[in-house]
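Design request, tokens follow.
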């Protein structure tokens, strides 16, 4: 997982640079809009899944079961938008924040060529010209680095394999 740790450090540095330049940036503690408005369940590489499993293992058995059931419910073709099954619904906090996937780390701070901005608040501020000087992270470069980290599957697929193997996540 050393390569994943390096990637996380690079993402954290870009996020910090953006936050320092824009103290009014909406992506911070207390904002869970992106977690409640996903286009689909997150996709993770094997190394991301192994890290996420460490975070899940630290949760109570009851909470892990709630998450497992929520993932199973969303497994097929979930209605859009998708609420992240890991999200604590009442607090809006991520119980596995330190082990969250790269997609969660880059959301709101990185752009992908031709796909635009996703967060409505950020999109509106950029369209208004307020944040024309922001140096965004390059999501295409992140995806290329992740491609070398092994198989990439949806959260539901990783959970399903764990359940079938009897190793309930």
């Amino acid at each position: 997982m050393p390569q994943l740790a390096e990637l996380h450090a690079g993402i954290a540095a870009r996020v910090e640079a953006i936050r320092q330049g824009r103290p009014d940036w909406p992506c911070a503690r207390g904002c869970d809009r992106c977690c409640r408005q996903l286009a689909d369940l997150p996709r993770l590489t094997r190394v991301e899944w192994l890290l996420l499993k460490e975070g899940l293992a630290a949760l109570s058995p009851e909470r892990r079961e709630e998450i497992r059931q929520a993932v199973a419910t969303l497994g097929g073709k979930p209605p859009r938008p998708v609420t992240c099954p890991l999200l604590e619904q009442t607090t809006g906090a991520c119980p596995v924040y330190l082990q969250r996937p790269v997609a969660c780390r880059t959301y709101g701070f990185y752009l992908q060529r031709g796909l635009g901005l996703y967060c409505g608040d950020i999109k509106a501020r950029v369209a208004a010209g307020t944040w024309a000087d922001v140096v965004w992270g390059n999501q295409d470069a992140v995806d290329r680095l992740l491609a070398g980290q092994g198989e990439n599957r949806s959260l539901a697929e990783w959970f399903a394999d764990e359940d079938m193997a009897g190793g309930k996540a």
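Comment from the thread starter after seeing the answer: thanks! The first strand starts at residue 43 and ends at 45.
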